[in-house]
Each structure stands twice: as structure tokens, then as C-alpha cells.
Amino acid sequence: MNILILLIIVAALAAIQLFVTRWLPLNRLAWMAIWWVAVYAAFAYGINPPLPSSIVVLFMAIVTLALVAYLSADSEELASAMRAITAFMVERRFRVALLAVLVALPLLAALSVYTDLSKPPQPPTSSRTIHPPPPVSISFKGKTIPLSTANNPYRELQHSDEAAFAQHVENGRRIYFENCFYCHGDNMQGAGMFAHGYDPIPANFNDPTTIAMLQESYLFWRIAKGAPGLPSEATPWSSAMPAWENFLTEEEIWDVILFLYEFTGYEPRAQGMPH
């Protein structure tokens, strides 16, 4: 999160509430517009790494619907807002402001299109690697995990205690469908509802060139550190995958890895095998 941007947004809202409203009373419609701008600024500039533009558009559509529902919940407030909109469009005293809006909106749209089209294509700073080499070790909640030798501590239950192994797989299934399938899809083909907002799109775990050729420790690294942990050879990227170490325990990450392999029918690459 970009704390500075979020603090500026909160300070601006407080300043409007404390100072602006003393001289210029604001109705619910005006506050809706202010909150819409504040939420957009938070999504577009207050989150790091930045959200893909398509995700921002999706979130703002939801926010817009929520604000419209809030306005229409009170019939008197809705009627007041409709009167204000009608007055702005038909009363002579608002003619200059109305003309300014009518001119500014298409100009802003044209400027946005021109800016997008005039940007020259930029080559990547380095070649993109689908499976970038992992670091030697990572720190996970104060614990050092050596990726070259780490093993899934619950994998051995697959043969020694099938009931316990099934419980871990079931826990992984729950975690996946609570957190991961929105992007990776309910069939793990990288076609979730948010998938095409990313560049590159999420991996197709059913493809034999993905998790089937990786060690479980590699998946632990990628899940724990997320997009912010990608090395330079994996860029440029536009991914909102979070660092799941901030939300999941070590056991939960290992469990979801078990579920990935169990669902796709693959076995992880054994330690010591060449890449």
C-alpha cells in the first residue's frame, strides 16, 4: 500500500468536511462524486504494486453501482439529486458550467485516446523468463527457508497416512477456492474471472510445462512472495498477485500446493533433478 497517497486522500476528505462545507453546503449527490473520486484515487494510486487498469475499471463500476444504490435508498434524497441535475441542465445560471462540461468531456476522452496511441512501444528491459530462477533461500515470517533443499513436510503423508494427507489436500482445496480461483480459474487453466487483467495471464497449471516441472519449494516461493517478489528477468509484468505470506500460514501454503498437484494429477519434480 502507498501509505502517503492514502493519507493525502483521507486528509483531503477531512478538509472538505471541516472547511469547505462551512461555506458551501454539499448535498448527497456532491458527496457521492467526492467519494467516487477518492475511491478511484485510492485504487489507482494508493496500491503498490499497482492494480491493472481493467481491475480498477471493474472495481469502480462496482463502487458506482453501490453509490447509486445508496442514493436511491432514500426517496427524498433521490428526488433532491434529480432536481439538482435538472437545474444544472436547464437553468440559465449554470449555462457556462454546462457548456464547459459538454466541451471538457469529449476533449478528455480524445486526449486519453491520443495519449495511449502516441506512446511508442517499449521493449522489455530484459528477456522475460516464465520460470525465473529462485533465490537460494527466503525469509518467511522470521523463518529462513532454503529453497534448494526444502520439502513439503506433508508430502510424505501421501504414502504413510492417507487420511491425514487427504485432510491437508482438502484444506488446500478450501484455501484455493477462497483465494486463488478468481484468477487461476476453477479448473486451474489460468482463465479465472480476473485473469485477462494481467500480463502475462495466470499460468495454466494443467499444462505439463508449469507445475509438473517444478519443485514444491519453488511454488512455495512464488505463492509466498507473489508478484512483488519477481526478479528482473521475469519482468515486465502487470500482476496483482499479492504476497500470500501476509495472509496465509506456512501450513496453508504447503496445503494449497498439495491440492494443486492432486487436482491436476501431476507429481512435483524431485529434488536434485535438472531444470
Written overview of the protein:
With 275 residues, the protein is mainly alpha-helical. It has two domains: 3-118, no CATH class; 137-264, Cytochrome Bc1 Complex, Chain D, domain 2, CATH 1.10.760. Helices cover 55% and strands 3% of the residues. It has helices at residues 3-23, 28-45, 53-72, 75-90, 95-118, 157-160, 162-179, 181-184, 216-225, 250-264, and strands at 137-140, 143-146. A two-stranded antiparallel ribbon has the order 1-2. Helix 2 runs antiparallel to helix 3 (53-72). The mean pLDDT is 86.
Termini separation comes to 35 Å
Strand content: under 5%
Looking across the biggest beta sheet, what order are the strands in?
1-2
**Number of alpha- plus pi-helical segments:** 10
Q: pLDDT under 50 segments (min length 5)?
A: none
Features:
mainly alpha, 55% helix, Cytochrome Bc1 Complex, Chain D, domain 2, 2 strands, 275 residues
